[in-house]
């Protein structure tokens, strides 16, 4: 275990696929870390004055604190961990290899070619007929959707009015939430988002077909591409979209890949709150 991991604290939210990416990577790296589990469902803790001022000006999650340094955005955090702990198991291939380019291609698919997962999350809450056997309560998710319309935006507006130094970040987050809510509550836009994810998973099916002899997406090395893909699929499965993307005969290699990926120790441990001391605000 890399001893220099002491001082690592991850601000996380349980259902966020972006938070779970970092949690899994920390476990894979074998570093010591702690988790601060944010209460974003009931108390919108990521939109408190404390969090906006001290952790992330737009209230985004995850954020990694390493001693006095804050690293924001999940991909930036993953890159930081790779560079900061090079002696630990590597999650990126060598940069001058085809495998490295494959990782970058898959990450661009996940984070650049498909709509924000929040659109799908709240779209399912608005249109539950698209879900089949969800693993989470869609009723609670619908309440969270309404909270986004009211409590979140109201709280951010209040901070923007009362604190000049928080205004820019709050206004940016309000605009983001309004865009997400508009897309998620328009049935046609929501369906287009679902279809775009279907397109992406078909692209991944082709990648797996090309690398049929390999264990993982980009070869025999387990990488951040596998972490991010597994977390995304898990998020969609939790929403009740398993049969849309993994069911039937359309993507058999992706289905087998996912079955293999969720057996990974870091994946199992992250759901058992393993690998870290997890605490919440008292």
Question: What does this entry look like structurally?
Answer:
The protein has twelve helices and five strands. It is an alpha/beta fold and 282 residues long. Strands 4-3-1-2-5 form a five-stranded mixed sheet. 39% of the residues are buried. The model has no long low-confidence stretch (mean pLDDT 92).
Tell me the distance between the termini: 30 Å
Using only CA atoms, what is the Rg? 19 Å
Strand percent estimate: 5-15%
Shape: globular
Number of strands: 5
Largest sheet: 5 strands, mixed
The largest beta-sheet arranges its strands as: 4-3-1-2-5
The pLDDT mean sits at 92
Structural class from helices and strands? alpha/beta
Low-confidence stretches: none
Keywords, separated by commas or semicolons:
12 helices, 282 residues, alpha/beta, 5-stranded mixed β-sheet
Summarize the structure.
The chain is of the alpha/beta class and 282 residues long. The chain has helices spanning 17-29, 49-54, 74-84, 98-112, 117-126, 138-162, 167-184, 187-210, 224-238, 242-245, 252-261, 265-271; strands at residues 8-12, 34-37, 63-66, 69-72, 277-279.
Topology:
Blueprint: E1 8-12, H1 17-29, E2 34-37, H2 49-54, E3 63-66, E4 69-72, H3 74-84, H4 98-112, H5 117-126, H6 138-162, H7 167-184, H8 187-210, H9 224-238, H10 242-245, H11 252-261, H12 265-271, E5 277-279
Parallel strand pairs: 1-2, 2-5
Antiparallel strand pairs: 1-3, 3-4
């Amino acid at each position: 275990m890399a001893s220099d991991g002491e001082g690592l604290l991850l601000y996380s939210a349980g259902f966020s696929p972006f938070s779970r990416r970092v949690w899994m990577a920390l476990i894979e790296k074998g570093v010591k870390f702690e988790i601060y589990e944010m209460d974003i469902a009931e108390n919108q803790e990521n939109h408190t004055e404390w969090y906006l001022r001290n952790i992330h000006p737009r209230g985004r999650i995850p954020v990694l604190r390493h001693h006095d340094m804050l690293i924001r955005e999940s991909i930036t955090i993953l890159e930081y961990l790779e560079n900061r702990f090079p002696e630990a198991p590597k999650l990126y291939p060598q940069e001058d290899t085809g495998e490295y380019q494959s990782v970058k291609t898959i990450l661009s698919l996940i984070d650049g070619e498909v709509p924000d997962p929040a659109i799908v999350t709240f779209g399912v809450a608005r249109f539950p007929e698209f879900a089949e056997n969800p693993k989470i309560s869609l009723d609670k998710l619908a309440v969270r959707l309404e909270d986004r319309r009211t409590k979140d935006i109201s709280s951010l507006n209040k901070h923007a009015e009362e604190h000049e130094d928080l205004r820019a970040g709050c206004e940016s987050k309000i605009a983001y939430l309004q865009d997400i809510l508009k897309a998620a509550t328009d049935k046609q836009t929501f369906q287009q988002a679902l279809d775009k994810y279907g397109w992406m998973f078909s692209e991944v099916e082709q990648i797996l077909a090309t690398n049929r002899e390999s264990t993982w997406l980009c070869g025999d090395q387990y990488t951040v591409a596998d972490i991010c893909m597994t977390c995304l699929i898990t998020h969609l499965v939790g929403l009740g979209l398993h049969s849309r993307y993994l069911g039937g005969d359309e993507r058999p290699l992706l289905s087998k890949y996912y079955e293999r990926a969720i057996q990974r120790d870091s994946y199992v441990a992250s759901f058992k709150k393993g690998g870290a001391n997890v605490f919440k605000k008292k």
